[in-house]
Amino acid sequence: MTKLDIESHARESRTPSSREATRAAQGPIGTFAGRIVREANLLIIPMILLIVALSFFSDAFFTGHNLTNILRTAAIFVILGVGQTFVITSKNIDLSIGSMMALVLCVTASLIIVQDWSPHLAVPFAIAMGAVLGVLNGMVVTKLKVPALLATLGGLIAYRGAVQEFMYGGQYVGLPEQILILGRGMWGPVPVPVAIAGFCVALGWLLFRYTRFGRYTVAIGSNEEAARRAGINVDRWTIGVFAFQGAMVGVAALVLMGRMNAANPNMGQLNELHVIAGVVLGGTLLFGGIGTILGTVLGLLFIGVLENGLLLAGAGFYWQQIFLGLLIILAVASQMLRIKLQGRH
Amino acid sequence: MTDQQNAVDMSEHAPGRLGTPAVRTIGLSKWYGSVRALSEVNLEIYPGEVVALVGDNGAGKSTLVKALSGAFQPTSGEIHIDGAPARLHTPADARKLGIETVYQDLALVAHVDVGGNLYLGREPTRWGVIGRLFGILDLPAMSKHAERALAELKVTIPSVRSPVGTMSGGQRQATAIARTALWGSKLLILDEPTAALGVQESEEALQLIEDVAAQGIPLIVVSHNIEHIFRIATRIVVLRQGRLVADLDRGDTSPDEVVGYITGARTSAAVPADAGDDVDTAGSGPR
């Protein structure tokens, strides 16, 4: 015991800066704000520049109504992005989320409208159904050994086909009040979808940093073989990651349903790419091992602001698509550059 | 004749080799189809020993190490731990019984910090039942214990909170060795611990191995570097064509002799007393 104390003292005196080093590793300021800056430092500056530029060029931008609108729109993407952050950190990807969301949404809406289910039952059902579909994705990836990119590309097509078949060209309109609140309501000054997204972000952030789930997600994405040798059940945790993404899809489906007051089989198209762009832009490494929930929030808000700016500038939906495509390429290119500059990861 | 000589050797030069061996293999063999990778290996390892396992490529070193670390099952033979037969079906079994292995690629997670790597797969949780249910990591305890474990081994790293990926090769090796020392209680296996390191880093790794050995847990070190072996080992075991061909005390042998056994220039069956059968098979073996 004494020997140990002496040694640790000796060590301390040999490296007097060890404490400072620890603090430095924890961020410029050990505060919440410091953490945000560290987790998404690359994006904060362009984000601020973009907002400043938009407030200059458009009177409509910096209004409460417009900003709330941006947040409402971004909320659904953020909910999806929390799950996708885990998926991408584990060196996987989930392209099926847009189609999956439409499927969950339409099935849940039909249960409410046709089968007369109570919304209180429909909410847990939607989340559970998303999780089950996520498990399905995870099983294909881990048990059938299909790379996630292709497995979930199959899911993207198959789930979309399933929902089209299920709806048979029709749509449901007119959902009960309890569902509409999820997409349109206000909770004090905060729009309910924004509050739900905030809850999902907090949950994801805590899971990512402070639990085995987050730790093993990183380990699997960073060095799967090392994780396996450390006794981590890689398949089980990978399925868990896809299930979590699925559950988030369920939540997003409920919010979207409430927002649209409708269930249409064409909903959610291209949402997966929007979400992946935001996640990668936020700093989550497309090659696994590094993930940041707060970065994802920033990345998706950035895209939201940008799209809003394009809209205010009079550019249409097609321009938004062009920008989204360029953003994905830009985000990945910047990550490649970062890896090259840092050397081996 | 040789048998007797060896029996004398053992009593004279290895006073530590008394009582029950921590780990013992009895007639361990491994066949890959019709190829014999390991043949009737009898090896006893006692607490406090550092056994260097040497041999040419394909001599059976990694086969023996993998059998001991539970990576696969031997075709025949037994492994005893503290005198009791042990079944090592998986690496997890071996770990549960206190056998830890540092593989050549270290098996560290670059994006997780040092503390997290030391505890990977065995993280402590906090907040009682709820913490266990949700797997809430006890991060402060992990950092604190990691710091203490590293200090005990005199390993200096910038911070246990820095990701392994930001550290040098030597620091990574130290982290991997510290992890085995933290969890292993019966046997630590190091596969080529200095192969990927520079001169200075090798020196630090060797120092670390000596510090670990001083804690009394026996080590098996697989290495090609004769100089390093003579520096750290208390015993040198030579494998050749799957057979244990020499079991030498460091003080009794020379690098030339060890190399002779490795290359097959020397063939006297200097194996432990109970290996009479092995001598016979050696006589009727290939060549």
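Residues 1-15, 272-287 of chain B have pLDDT under 50 and may be disordered.
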